[in-house]
Amino acid sequence: MTTGARARLSQAAQTLSLDLGEAQLDQLLAYMDWLAKWNKVYNLTSLRDPAEMLSHHLIDSLTAVCPLQMYARSLPTQADSAPVRVLDVGSGGGLPGVVLAICLPQLHVTCVDTVNKKAAFIQQVAVALRLPNLKGLHARVESVDGGFDVVTSRAFASLADFTTWSVKALKPGAVWMAMKGRHPAEELAALGAGVEVFHVEPLVVPGLDVERCLVWMRVAGLSR
Hints:
Number of strands: 7
Helix content: 40-55%
Oligomer: single chain
CATH class: Alpha Beta
Mean pLDDT: 92
Radius of gyration: 17 Å
Low-confidence stretches: none
CATH topology: Rossmann fold
Distance between the termini: 42 Å
Number of helices: 8
Number of domains: 1
Strand content: 15-25%
CATH superfamily: Vaccinia Virus protein VP39
CATH architecture: 3-Layer(aba) Sandwich
C-alpha cells in the first residue's frame, strides 16, 4: 500500500474515533496487501482496485470497531477473565473479522467459512501478522457450537438466515451484530418470533456516500 493509502486509513480511523497505534496501521495495510495478493489466485473478493479495497472493505469494516468495543466493555467481568469471543460468519477474506482482531487485540476472533481456501487465508494472515487472537475455521456455521459472546457477519445472508444458521454458536445472553447497508426493513419484518432486535445503529463510512447500519439482535426473552 502507498503512503496515500496510509494517510487515508489514518484519517478514517481518526474520524471514527479509533485510537490505533502505528503498528496496528501497519497490520491493517499489510492485511490489505495479503488480500490483494491471494485474491489474484483464490478470488477472495470481487474488488481488484487497491483504492476500492481500502475504502469499501478496510475502512467500511472499521465502522464496526467502536460499537463492538463499547459492547465488549459493557459485559460483566468474568470470574475466569476469559476474553470476549467473536465469531465472524461467512468471513470470506476476513471482513470484518481480521479488522476486528487487529483493532481489538483483547478479543478472540474466529472467522468461519465453508470454503477451505478462505479459512486457510485467515490462518495465514494470523501467522504472518502475528495475531494470536485470530483463527480461521473451515466449517458450516450450523456445526459451530456455543461459546461466542458476539456473532457477526458482513454482506453474508438475510437476517433470518444468518440468525437461524448461527443460533447454536451463541452462548447464553450473547448477541448478533450484523453489518448491513441501508436499513433492512423487509429483513427485520421477516425475522421469527425467536429473535429480538434491540438496536439498529446507523454507521458513517469516512469518504463514502453510502448507507450502512449495524443490526443488534439476541434470542428473544434472553438478556444479560
